[in-house]
Amino acid sequence: xxxxxxxxSGLRYLVLLAAFGAMVSLAYALAMGRADRSARxxxxxxxxxLDLQVLLxxxxxxxxxxxxxxxxxxxxxxxxxxxxxxxxxxxxxxSTERREMTIRxxxxxxxxxxxxxxITALGRSVLGSAPMSVG
Length: 135
What we know:
The chain has one domain: Four Helix Bundle (Hemerythrin (Met), subunit A) (Up-down Bundle). The chain contains 4 helices and no strands.
């Protein structure tokens, strides 16, 4: 469980970095008026990393690493995942490329807000770390 905890905790930095990168690439693409490769790849990378992060979190819950504060954390993370995937589906159905990029950007911004809320729900700093607690 210790390895799983550290993997989950460390992957958070990649998730945050991918979210930031996706927001920058989408904002740049919107400013330029057309999507480039990074505006297509970065949101997908963010979604994939978030999927993996939630999967690791579920593994921790199954393994018994579940402090009382983790209920809110878990709920916010699942909502962030749903928002990210819903934005992706809606973006694919968008009538224009600009609308697609806007939907993806809004979805990532909302998911990032939920992720930050979920991390702080554990009583931890977004960029800090804490020892594993078993509850």
